[in-house]
Amino acid sequence: MIKVIIRHTYKSFLIGLLQDGLIYNISVHADQDWTQTVLGLVRAKLVTAPAGLEVGQYRALAAYYQQPGSSLLWSGQNGRLLRAVEFRQLLQRVEAHGLDRDPYRFERIESYWYNTDIDSVVALELLLSQVLLEYASDIHSGRYHPYEMDEDWFMDVPKLDFAQFLLDISGQTSINEFLHQLAPIHKIYREMQNYLGRYLSLAELGGWTAIEKGPTLRPGMQHAHVVQVRQRLVATGDLTDTTQLNSSFYDEALITAVKHYQKRNGLKTDGLIGKDTRAAMNVPVDQRIGQIRLNLERWRWLPLEFKGHSLVVNMTGYMLYGVRDQDIVMEMPVIIGKAYRSTPSINNKMSYIEMNPYWNVPTSIALKDLIPRQMRDPEYLGNKNIRVFRGWHADAEELDPAEVDWSRVNKNYFPYRLRQDPGPDNSLGRIKFMFPNEYSIYLHDTPNRELFNQNDRAFSSGCIRVQDPMFLATYLLGDTSEAGQARIESLLATGETQALLLSEKIPIYLVYMTAWVDRAGYLNFRRDIYGRDQRMLNRICQKRPEKCDEV
Question: What is the DSSP string of 328-379?
Fold first, then answer.
């Protein structure tokens, strides 16, 4: 009798540890009758969709539990399964992805976790399964739908097959690594998570103190505000030498730290602490945390695989990147669309390069820019080598632009095609890089090369102008040698319009990221040049007023 009591007590002790998540590597075989009873109750509950579950998620959930031979995902007769313990622990760490716990009903999960009665087991089974699908969707495709957050986003969001996902989960004892792979796999995303953790720690310590208004601080100056600058740059790791932390002298070590800060914040790297640098340094830590969270969310929207070769344009950084797998192997300054003609977020595959291109002027640009100038100066189009045709068909009649009644045209009536011939003044320069899209966006050369000297480069009508089109052409064609460059030069020298097909189409993505980690591993921030961060924050606030200050 004593042995039986001891055995029973030990078994209860082990089950208690299992339920507490303290141990979970003991094989406990659930009683089939008990399992079938719980499954029956779960199926009965799923006759109607749980509140808040999307249609596709509900159908997958119902199909999983209704199929013959289905098993419980989270509990056995003797306690919670390993995957339940792991998922519960994961939900305690969702902040690492810039998410918060509230939508995942962690407190409700806790209210059932330690109860062993069958009603609690059923409730927990359904709750964890529902939260699993919601979490998996959020981490894989984004918590918010991009089309509701950004009207300039035109990329398909990666989709999760919920039915297959549940089957995959049910077949694994441990699910940590499986769930880890749902998030974007690129190392920039992982590094941004690390920086988010650091900035959250900074916020817990009070962040940083604002630098007072005052004169522009220059190298060699002695000023009380220099001490504030030192403390500010130590907080974010730009200044690592803390031996002179209370010095008010602007020395060489501080110059290096200031330039480092300016570079990773997209400022002019002149070492001068003027209005713009002060303003950037005074952005509160909570605002920077929100910026990181917004951009982690954008990463989850991206259909980026980063397998093989791809091109990425980050608009706010004014840079084009050549990416092979997860490594940046080429970067080049670019010019993007003006604020009122912003470049959209799109993707497709680059298929060919055009030498000595014609410029078929988009109607919107013709109406807003060219026609008003032509009406003021009847020789304007002719001087720009822009010809006018009646319609877009190949044998369209050419017209004298000075004889067209331009006062009659508008967005609903524009029966003409304006085309600029190839040449040194062509707005597209000598080379155009083409990928199909309905927005008439492409990469191209430019005759206005002086614009690349500017720090902020939002000057175009939406297309992307590249600084070194010759190198980009040879890079895409796979031969950056002198011979490869000579081949391109010889084609351009003919003056003829020619298309060069790429041996394989190269994926290209035009993205809008105001926070990212660069090749050297440093966190970068940029201005919200198109206001997309602010619009996104406003819409999140409308959806979740209690989270107006968060993502």
Answer: EEEEEEEEEE-GGGPPPB-EEEEEEEEES--EE--HHHIIIIIHHHHHH-TT
Residue 444 is among the residues annotated as catalytic for this protein:
yes
Does a structural domain hold residue 546?
no
User: Under a CB-based contact definition with an 8 Å cutoff, are residues 506 and 349 in contact?
Assistant: yes
Residue of 140, 463, 541, 548 marked active site:
463
Average pLDDT over residues 121-128: 97
Residue 295 belongs to some domain of the structure: no
Give the tens place of pLDDT for each residue, 488-515: 999 999 999 999 999 999 999 999 999 9
For the chain, how many helices (H) and strands (E)? 20, 17
Same domain flag for 442 and 516: yes
Catalytic, 548? Answer: no
Tell me which of 151, 183, 215 is where a domain ends: 183
Among 140, 186, 260, 444, the one annotated catalytic? 444
Query: Are residues 312 and 195 located together in one domain of the fold?
Result: no
Q: Is the pLDDT of residue 21 over 60?
A: no
Rounded Cα gap, residues 159 and 212, in angstroms: 48
> Using only C-alpha atoms, what is the Rg of the chain?
30
CATH number for the domain harbouring residue 216: 1.10.101.10
Distance CA 465, CA 421 (A): 18
Instruction: Mark whether 371 and 422 lie in a shared domain.
Output: yes
Q: How far apart are CA 302 and CA 313, in angstroms?
A: 13
In 3D, which of 132, 136, 31, 32 has the Cα closest to residue 73?
Answer: 132
Residues of the domain holding 233: 191-287
Same-domain check for residues 371 and 440: yes
